[in-house]
Specification:
Elements: E1 2-7, H1 19-22, H2 27-37, E2 42-47, H3 51-60, E3 65-69, H4 78-85, E4 91-95, E5 117-120, H5 125-134
Parallel strand pairs: 1-2, 1-3, 3-4, 4-5
Length: 137
């Protein structure tokens, strides 16, 4: 399966950004682990701090399944939500922290309703669990 992992704003800083919340593993290091554990899949990765670039990448639609962590766009990007609505492939939303135990504004996801499931609070392991869950969607 051709899987796109897409991360939103500030997630390029994983490993150094607020390690008590997001951990100390960089996405690049964790991607190596995912690729080793899921050799049967073709995993590609994209990250942007710019909403329009994320939408453009999603509209390319050259993947069979999507794992998305919209970052802060989770809470207000109806544009990304609208884009996700038009993607028929399996889609899993991932959040490293448990957004429901954080500040009130972080507890709402406007994108979640356009995905098949949401994994929140599993740390970086959420990405691995998302790939595993794609088999059952």
């Amino acid at each position: 399966m051709k899987i796109l992992i897409l991360n939103g704003p500030n997630l390029n800083l994983l490993g150094t950004r607020e390690p008590t919340i997001y951990g100390t593993i960089s996405m690049e290091n964790y991607l190596q682990t995912l690729e080793e554990n899921f050799k049967e899949h073709e995993i590609s990765y994209y990250q942007s701090n710019i909403e329009g670039e994320i939408i453009n990448r999603l509209q390319e639609n050259n993947f069979e399944a999507l794992v998305i962590n919209p970052g802060a766009f989770t809470h207000y990007s109806y544009a990304i939500a609208d884009c996700l609505k038009n993607i028929s492939q399996p889609k899993v939303e991932v959040h490293i922290s448990n957004i429901y135990k954080r500040e009130e504004f972080r507890q709402k996801s406007v994108t979640a309703a356009q995905t098949d499931c949401v994994l929140s609070g599993f740390g970086m392991e959420g990405y691995r669990l998302a790939i595993l869950s794609l088999k059952s969607i």
